From TrEMBL:
UniProt-listed Pfam families: CoA_transf_3
Organismal lineage: Bacteria, Pseudomonadati, Pseudomonadota, Alphaproteobacteria, Sphingomonadales
Region (Disordered): 41-60
Protein name: CoA transferase
GO molecular function: CoA-transferase activity
Alphabetic keyword roster: Transferase
Coiled coil regions in record: none
């Protein structure tokens, strides 16, 4: 079962794709009752973002892509056409009985249906309403659409990712995963928890305005702060870091490893492992600041030394020397890692048509309200009757009238 930390909190999730559903999933993992609302017949756009698609127990593709499965566990699923007056009225009824609404429609869209914050707070003043959009609720870009890659480009993330200019493959690079979406989901869930805390103290709900552009820029953290105090635009360093040196990948005789030896003690241990302890005493490299200033000269030495032996040899010696290092794993190799296995990051859920399905586990660990095994992401509309009966008290006849009218 999900954690009981947010037991008693009910969330109406009107969102789709990734950032906002991911936010809602985090709340669901922590014990909130999350009711995911989708379009009848079509559902969340991310259901179609395959292949790969989840296979049923006969090995046939379902209509649910892995993308959808990644951010909708532990939710109840209903279908409502908010464009129909009866559908919008139904959602207002649900919002009146919820603590949180999460939506990611373009600015102003839901106001046409009486589903914006101002409309809903009049019937539920305690409501926490989180709107997640590309550019926020105001400003010259507020009406624009946008997706993760656009925001990685616009916020500067791509400019600091990738190999330097002038080397093969050099140039700005998108982070592989939809990083701005994920970060926005994390920022938004934090904001919602803070707003619930405020609501519980004061009885007052509030509106939360989350923009992917803002979250992407905020995530650049020390890259931006370094620029703000120096005026120097950060350069791309490929797989190299911007802290102490070394902190990057090195090509061994057979494959890549990532090594961080930023403190003087770690650097001394590294150079002893590499058979060149005198380098640690070289006045160009004997302090963190000097290693940063003479980065290129040091990396040339390290590249030569690491290339002489296989990765496994170096990793074994570096572990003894207490120098942080790892193979550069692909996703399949990650689940062979003994620490990942020990921490139980691979979970399994029971799915109504696919049987047992492997999923990622939420990484949060709490002693009093632990997160247990998850429930599978809902099939399209699977909880229509249950939610309307339990939350709104509808009887079978009322539900059938809505279904016949195409509202569900």
């Amino acid at each position: 079962m999900p954690s009981e930390a947010l037991q008693g909190v009910r969330v109406l999730d009107l969102s789709r794709i990734l950032a906002a559903p991911y936010c809602a999933q985090l709340l669901a993992d922590l014990g909130a009752e999350v009711i995911k609302v989708e379009r009848p017949g079509a559902g969340d756009d991310s259901r179609s973002y395959g292949p790969p698609f989840l296979k049923d127990e006969d090995g046939e593709d379902t209509r649910d892509a892995g993308f959808y499965l990644s951010c909708n566990r532990n939710k109840r699923g209903i279908t409502v056409d908010h464009a129909k007056p009866e559908g919008a009225a139904l959602l207002r009824e649900l919002a009146a009985k919820c603590d949180v609404v999460i939506e990611n429609f373009r600015t102003g869209v839901l106001a046409k249906y009486g589903l914006d914050f101002d409309s809903l707070k009049s019937i539920n003043p305690r409501l926490v309403y989180c709107s997640i959009t590309g550019f926020g609720q105001d400003g010259p870009y507020a009406a624009r659409p946008g997706y993760d890659g656009v925001f990685q480009a616009m916020c500067g993330m791509m400019s600091v990712s990738g190999l330097p200019d002038g080397v093969p493959g050099g140039g700005p690079m998108k982070v592989g995963v939809s990083m701005v979406d994920i970060l926005t989901g994390l920022y938004a869930s934090n904001a919602i928890l803070a707003a619930l805390r405020h609501r519980d103290r004061t009885g007052q709900g509030q509106f939360i305005d989350m923009a992917l552009l803002d979250c992407g820029l905020a995530s650049l953290s020390h890259y931006v702060q370094n620029y703000l105090i120096s005026g120097v635009v950060p350069e791309r360093r490929g797989n190299g870091g911007f802290g102490g040196i070394p902190s990057q990948t090195f090509r061994c005789a057979d494959r890549d490893i990532f090594v961080v030896a930023s403190t003087n003690k770690q650097f001394g241990g590294l150079m002893t492992v590499l058979g060149e302890p005198a380098v640690a005493c070289d006045p160009r490299f004997d302090q963190v600041q000097r290693r940063i200033e003479n980065r290129d000269a040091l990396l040339a030495i390290l590249d030569r030394l690491f290339s002489s032996r296989p990765a496994a040899d170096w990793l074994a010696a570096l572990e003894v020397a207490d120098v942080p290092a790892s193979l550069v794993n692909d996703v399949a190799m990650v689940f062979d890692n003994p620490q990942v296995r020990h921490r139980g990051m691979l979970d399994h859920v029971q799915h109504s048509v696919a049987g047992v399905v492997p999923v990622l586990r939420n990484p949060i660990r709490m002693s009093a309200t632990p997160i247990g095994s998850a429930s599978a992401p809902p099939m399209l509309g699977q909880d229509n009757e249950a939610v309307l009966r339990e939350v709104l008290g509808y009887d079978h006849a009322a539900i059938e009238r809505l279904r016949a009218a195409g509202v569900l």
